[in-house]
Amino acid sequence: MLNGFVEKSTESETGSTESIEHDALRAALEQGVSYAVKRLGEKNGYFDDEKVKIPLPEGLAKLEPLIRQSGGDEIVDELVLSMNDSATEAAPKTVEIFFSAIKSMSISDAQSILQAEDNALTEYFRKSSYQKLEHLIKPIVTKMMDKNKVSYYYKQVRNSYQENESSIPYRDNLLNVGKSFGLDAYVPPKELDQYVTKKAIDGLFIKISEEEKKIRDNPLVQKSKLIRDVFGSI
User: Fold this and answer.
1) 43-69: per-residue pLDDT in tens?
2) What is the 3-class SS of the chain, one letter each residue?
3) 132: Cβ contacts below 8 Å, ≥ 6 apart
4) Closest by Cα among 18, 226, 182 to 112
5) How far is it, in rounded angstroms, from Cα 167 to Cα 185?
6) What is the pLDDT of residues 218-232, one digit of tens each?
7) Dihedrals phi, psi of 201, to nearest 5 degrees
8) 3-class SS of residue 208
9) How far, CA to CA in Å, does 199 sit from each of 86, 104, 150?
């Protein structure tokens, strides 16, 4: 009887501990999301942060020197700024999406994450929710990109290269380089929203990961007692 009572009591205490850990992890992730959204939702939140700044798509980036040499500096800069502005405007609208995903974290997930690497919590979030987030965030980004005329600037960049290619210094050599990448290397305008969506979400995860690392590295400075207690005991 006594053994049975002890086992039952231990199970109850363990369950309580697991629940506390689960709540602490959820609180930490919510804190990370709030931090990420606030930082990236500020004016030029993406554009001014080299860790998350959205660059030209790969094909355009390879041809950027040629485009700039053909007089395309201004429209290249406008395209990069407009893509980043789209991500910045979308960021605050993702809060509820993220918080909804946080609620789906199980106690067993919390246990394994707590004992894992610094960014394990963020990586769990990425693996378990990325596709859903992408699906939900893409329409927001698409709308913001429309508002910021991303497709317009994209077409201007491409036109700048095509219309002025004859004036580019060392035209033959440079055009051969460009053709080796191929104009097909451009991301089609209709796919730009997918590209910016991915980069916008990646940026949010980077910022969430930064906050998670702060919590793990120095939990005792956290305002939340729950977070201090749980992460301080790891």
Assistant:
1) 999 999 999 999 988 877 877 787 777
2) CHHHHHHHHHHHHHHHHHHHHHHHHHHHHHHHHHHHHHHHHCCCCCCCCCCCCCCCCHHHHHHHHHHHHCCCHHHHHHHHHHHHHHHHHHHHHHHHHHHHHHCCCCHHHHHHHHCCCCCHHHHHHHHHHHHHHHHHHHHHHHHHHHHCCHHHHHHHHHHHHHHHHHHCCCHHHHHHHHHHHCHHHCCCHHHHHHHHHHHHHHHHHHHHHHHHHHHHHCHHHCCCHHHHHHHHCC
3) 97, 101
4) 18
5) 22
6) 888 888 888 888 888
7) -70, -40
8) helix
9) 11, 24, 15
Tell me the C-alpha distance between 215 and 203, whole Å: 19
Q: Could you report the per-residue pLDDT of 69-83, keeping only the tens digit for each?
A: 767 787 788 888 988
What is the pLDDT, as a whole number, of residue 79? 82
Q: Which amino acid is at 30?
A: E
Q: What is the pLDDT of residues 106-131, one digit of tens each?
A: 888 787 877 777 777 778 778 877 88
The pLDDT, as a whole number, for residue 50 is: 96
Tokens found for residue 220: 């005792």
- Among residues 135, 116, 112, the alpha carbon closest in space to that of 209 is found at 116
Residues 6+ apart with CB under 8 A from 80: 47, 54, 55, 56
pTM, to two decimals: 0.75
Cα–Cα distances in Å, from 19 out to 105, 117, 124?
12, 21, 18
**Dihedral (Cα; 184, 56, 203, 146), 10-degree rounding:** -80
CA distances from 77 to 27, 80, 157, 221 (A): 39, 5, 10, 41
